[in-house]
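Protein folding task:
====================
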Amino acid sequence: MRIVTTAAAMQRLALRWRRAGTRVGFVPTMGYLHGGHLSLVHRARRLVGKRGIVVASIYVNPTQFAPTEDLSAYPRDLERDKALCRKAGVDVLFLPSDAEMYPGRDTGGYSTYVVEERLSQGMEGGSRPTHFRGVTTVVAKLFNLVLPDVAVFGAKDWQQAAVIRRMTRDLNFPLRVVVAPTRREKDGLAMSSRNKYLSAEERAQATILFRALKLAKEVVAASRTPNYADVLKKELAALIATQPAARLDYVEFFDPETLQPAIAVTRGTHLALAVFIGRTRLIDNAELK
């Protein structure tokens, strides 16, 4: 596995691969890798084949964190991540620094950002107003540096994936965005780097997110007529409130393509929620098949 740390070196490699006609699969991450990340690496390998190149990046992007969020405390273990990437079959690991990705940002010398103005407005965009500007900017920069044929993202961050797909389409990036299924622990909790923050008691209570998704699916499956979203939201909020450490941030029913809120909830409607478990904010989502 080759390790690249500068933007210039990464782009030189990518241009060489493009000239040679080598297919490139890309998995951007913020590190502290888990089984969900590794499943994306394996998916990228299947998509580009044995003769292709799989690139993973590890970069904790400061521009997608608000000043009150956990940038400095975000879990990091680079040596462990390197070993996991090597074992998973990553060919090139890109490890840029802040100075490489945002040259001069601390002194006012960086001033260009990418903004998606529709899909990013609700849910995560409502709770974290500066978040998606940071996500779209860093992903656009990574796409320009890695020049992938295909990029793989996880479905746990459904809105993020939708925003990136829209950006890719609107800005004519010549690549395919693939969204892979959410990987879960045995008790249903979605795999997340932030799960590390949870105490043993909080970890047990964190399964309430999955239980809320399950309840919504059961209600929709049992109904012959659409359910009103506001009524179902109250049911889910009451369920989440049964856990002492849980505090609901939002629950939203929406169209999975347009992300427009749904008034009537039927099969095919998508559900997303964000819940604080203690001080740790977790997200999850599901299609209500």
